Amino acid sequence: MPGYIKIEALRMLRNKRYVIFVVAFPVAFYLLSVNLYGGGTDAAGASVVLMVSMSAYGALAASMMSTVVPWAQERQSGWLRQLQVTPLTNRTIIVTKLVTSLLLVLPSILLVCAAAVLAQGVWLTPARWAGLILVMWAGAVPFAALGLTVGSLLPPDAAQPVAMIGTFGLAILGGLWYPVDLMPSALKAVAHVMPSFHYTDMGQSIVAGHGVPPSDALTVGAWAVALGVVAVAAHRRATVRG
Amino acid sequence: MNAIAFTDVSKSYGNVLAVDGLDLAVEAGRTVALLGPNGAGKSTSINMLLGLLRPTHGRIEVLGTSPDEAVARGEVGAMMQSGELIPELTVRELVDFVRRLYPRPLGLDEILQMADLTGLVKRRAGKLSGGQAQRVRFALSIAGAPKLLVLDEPTAAMDVESRLRFWAGMRAYAAGGRTVLFATHYLEEADENSDRVVVVARGRVVADGTAAQIKAGAGGQTVRFTLDGQAAAGLDALPGVTAVEVEEGTATLRTADPDATVAALYRGTSLRVRDLRITGAALEDAFLALTQES
């Protein structure tokens, strides 16, 4: 499995679209927004709040992008069949996809944090840094599971736009780009059940020194389990041997 | 031991019977061609052999166990009819990755040499030509040193020269006492690269033997001579003859045994035989005869 994870990670790091949308875009958007909102490095300041929401966006985009389209393509192109006639099991294949997707979330988070430190002078206590990175990382599981589900159910042509809409929809409804508080109340109610909202909220809460709110952790955990189950079912359906 | 054993295997998709009671046993160490027109059930049979499809009826054994088990043990390698590679990865990365999935793989250099890829190791798969990509797929199929190598129309996208080099690689691999089964609808390929040809049509085996036996069995050779108005009666009774045609003074005898036919023509008849020609008919004729009559 380590060899499989290695080539899966390599191929994404060499993919221009991944590098632009997932690695470069969140950092650029962070630097741009920070200047618009006028900085501020205390816990509630724009530099810190935006660092968390842009990391969250980067992680969300990375986990969707490294799963949906590659997975849909591999099924259609015959690469999956090639793997199915090696000793690799279907279970190893799906677990590797999930693990790799989570690995590919890290560059987005770390680069946005690095930009915040270097360009805005943001500084947190070591415990808060550790907590933030860990939570932003592990909290991406529901998105990777969603990506694998979509990739299992749709052909590549359809998967591409669905991945985009899904990523932007979760970003907007989760308040990653604009604060949820500015939304009309109906939309706010929708936002409050989104995994992306609670995911970001965990990060904001950690940088503010409040730890992880249990309700956020529970909601993200529930989404992770639910989407995980759906992903496994969808994957079984996609790889069934008729 | 048989490397492959199909026992009364059928596969249907709804009302369409793709494979119809297929029986086939292949001894270990043989190179067998599965020859048939498109739609004969070759790919369906191969996909069942690899555990990618389940038979509707019947039993398949691979190296003494089930297809799934043989694949899981790393004893099977396959080159499917189509399949893209991961464009961002280099030839070396792809081959080495697949090689390491197997318990007792070939050495990397050995694989690259056999698949004629030594000059392309650093090339990304997305930048390969069709024929080069095909060679990489061959490399992936032999990487794990499988006891059974299965190739489904392996030369489909190749030019003539690539084809020759591909078959040289395949023979080098088979020479190690390994079993190879390849599907093709190119008759020459079956003739030149296998020691047994199994002809399938409409999901059934319609002929099975060496290429020479199949040509003979289908009455594939012809004996021609100038008859010039002499009586043709009795020609159809000569040994081996399956059909007689007389046209513009020339007699054409289709025969399963040209030696016996010619001997009897001279010794057993009083005909004046001139311009005698024996044509070893193409396997193509035999193949057409077999796949159409069944």
TrEMBL record, chain B:
Q: How does it sit in the membrane?
A: Peripheral membrane protein
Its Gene Ontology molecular function terms?
Answer: ATP binding; ATP hydrolysis activity
Question: Domain ABC transporter, which positions?
Answer: 4-227
Instruction: Quote the subcellular location field of this record.
Output: Cell membrane
> Known InterPro entries for this protein?
AAA+_ATPase, ABC_transporter-like_ATP-bd, ABC_transporter-like_CS, ABC_transporter_ATP-binding, P-loop_NTPase
Q: Which GO terms describe its biological process?
A: response to antibiotic
Record's GO cellular component terms: plasma membrane
Q: What Pfam family does this protein match (any one)? A: ABC_tran
Question: Per its UniProt entry, which superkingdom is the organism in?
Answer: Bacteria
Which CDD domains does UniProt cross-reference here? ABC_DR_subfamily_A
Coiled coil segments of this chain: none
SUPFAM superfamilies for the chain: P-loop containing nucleoside triphosphate hydrolases
Q: What is its main location?
A: membrane
UniProt entry keywords in alphabetical sequence: Antibiotic resistance, ATP-binding, Nucleotide-binding, Transport
**Which PANTHER family is this protein grouped with?**
ABC TRANSPORTER ATP-BINDING PROTEIN (PTHR42711)
Q: What is this protein called?
A: Sulfate ABC transporter ATP-binding protein
UniProt source species: Streptosporangium minutum
